[in-house]
Amino acid sequence: MTKAVPQPNQPLVTHIYTADPSAHVFDGRIYIYPSHDLDHDGESNDNGDQYRMEDYHVLSMDNLASPVVDHGEALHIRDVPWASKQMWAPDAAYKNGMYYLFFPARDHDGIFRIGVATSPSPAGPFRAQPTYMEGSFSIDPAVLVDDDGRSYMYFGGLWGGQLEKWQTGEFRPDDKEPAPGAPALGPRATLLSDDMLSLQGAPKEIEIVDEDGNPILAGDEDRRYFEGPWVHKYGGLYYLSYSTGTTHKLVYAVSRDPLGPYTFKGTILTPVIGWTTHHSIVQFENKWYLFYHDSSLSGGINHKRCVKYAVLHYEEDGTIRTIDPYPEQEK
Ligand code: FUB
């Protein structure tokens, strides 16, 4: 168990590499569900083979001024019968006395699927369901438990995350992203069953449009969806935030409906050290926080990342103030 007091814009832990932090407040404490990056010197490529993660650790803090606790291994791939490799960005949810860990991994055919594991404790250990969630595909699940009790799962990522290979509704390994002038692919979303263990119906593509209602195009790499969706509510609106991948930003769009369409608004976080950027947004004791990662702990190695947090500010009109991840450093 490692303990350190977290500082804004600094690694939450340094004894392991961590990424893709999904933060939640459970029982009045902050729990963070990150990926656990492996320390290896193998090959890197656009397919993401360097992200070889095999297990999850849960981190927690009483508050932002208290030490971070690493609760140890919460789930290992050896205990997930349907998964073969690459346990990527997870998320967690609570419902009816049970905690749920949603996670992507490649199945035994090399296709990314999403599975779920359960625990009576937010810190785990989690026990995986024997099969992946039927109808699931791609990566980066994010679950919103709405105020009316309905739960939605958002997911999807391009390139290594295989989202472009599902455009027809079935897996076609040679399918590519849409042409630059065509509408970009959106994340997928669907309701979860009451027991949180299965998808209710076929996932729907979430539309992201500009202020005039026109779809964001695939060639608009500063705004188009790439991976890492997160949905939270503020001022009666749903905020969908995500990574733009190739332009390395975290951006957001808003809607009155959890399933969209979402109208693009702006940038939450400018590029960090390292190729990927991935986040979550959570409210704790009347303040809002962005949890994110970069590769600063390893001196910029893409697959050796560290999770961090920053305070997030809303302007009077509900827009989010853009965060600079390196506020004290000279550019
Ligand atoms: O951590 C592996 C992958 O990198 C995640 O699933 C993506 O969101 C990106 O952060």
Task: Provide the descriptors you would attach to this structure in a database record.
five-stranded antiparallel β-sheet, binds beta-L-arabinofuranose, five-stranded mixed β-sheet, 331 residues, Tachylectin-2, Chain A, mainly beta
Characterization of this structure:
This protein has a single domain (17-312), classed as Tachylectin-2, Chain A (5 Propeller). Strands 5, 6, 7, 8 and 9 form a 5-stranded antiparallel β-sheet that branches. Strands 14-18-17-16-15 form a 5-stranded mixed β-sheet, with no helix packed on it. The protein has a 4-stranded antiparallel β-sheet with strand order 1-2-3-4, with no helix packed on it. With 331 residues, it is mostly beta strands. It contains no helices and 21 strands. It is globular. β12 and β13 form a beta hairpin. The two termini are 36 Å apart. It has strands spanning 17-26, 29-37, 55-61, 69-76, 83-85, 91-95, 98-107, 112-119, 127-128, 142-145, 151-155, 188-192, 199-205, 208-209, 227-234, 237-243, 250-255, 262-269, 279-284, 287-294, 306-312. Beta-L-arabinofuranose (FUB) binds at residues 19-20, 35, 51, 88-89, 139-140, 157, 227-228, 276, 278. Beta-L-arabinofuranose is lined by residues 19-20, 35, 51, 88-89, 139-140, 157, 227-228, 276, 278.
Q: Name the CATH class.
A: Mainly Beta
What proportion of the residues form beta strands (DSSP E)? 35-45%
**Total domain count:** 1
Low-confidence blocks of residues: none
**Structural class label:** mainly beta
- List the ligand species: beta-L-arabinofuranose
Strand tally: 21
SSE string, helices as H and strands as E: EEEEEEEEEEEEEEEEEEEEE
How far apart the termini lie comes to 36 Å
Largest sheet: 5 strands, antiparallel
What's the CATH architecture? 5 Propeller
CATH-assigned homologous superfamily: Glycosyl hydrolase domain, family 43
Q: Remind me, CATH topology? A: Tachylectin-2, Chain A
Can you count the helices? 0
Rounded radius of gyration (Å): 18 Å
What average pLDDT do the residues reach? 97
Helicity level: under 10%
Shape designation: globular
